[in-house]
User: Which sequence fits this backbone?
């Protein structure tokens, strides 16, 4: 059974850091292009960061460039998003996604709230 399970969200003060994890099962994540997206209340889902397969090249939305880092641990079949210098506008539900040809899998999301 294919599953993506996000964790690591929570409440953090502006300027703080969080690391999100996305554990994949039922497929080999390293052979998929994987990304993090987010959706804030009343807004459309936004692509935040991508790590490609093969190659492992990364891309970021301009709004997070220099603050967020996407990475993967192939041995653990896990995707990460290290978030630093968090801002209130980063508040959203963060989703993990895996894509390979016509295969497209989503996790259930994890809430990140940036507030003082």
Assistant:
């Amino acid at each position: 059974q294919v599953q993506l399970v996000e964790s690591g969200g929570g409440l953090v003060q502006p300027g703080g850091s969080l690391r999100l994890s996305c554990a994949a099962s039922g497929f080999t994540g390293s052979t998929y292009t994987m990304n993090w997206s987010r959706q804030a209340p009343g807004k459309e889902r936004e692509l935040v960061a991508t790590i490609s397969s093969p190659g492992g090249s990364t891309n970021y939305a301009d709004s997070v460039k220099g603050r967020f880092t996407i990475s993967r641990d192939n041995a653990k079949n896990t995707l990460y998003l290290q978030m630093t210098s968090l801002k209130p506008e980063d508040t959203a539900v963060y989703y993990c996604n895996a894509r390979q040809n016509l295969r497209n899998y989503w996790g259930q999301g994890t809430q990140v709230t940036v507030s003082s």
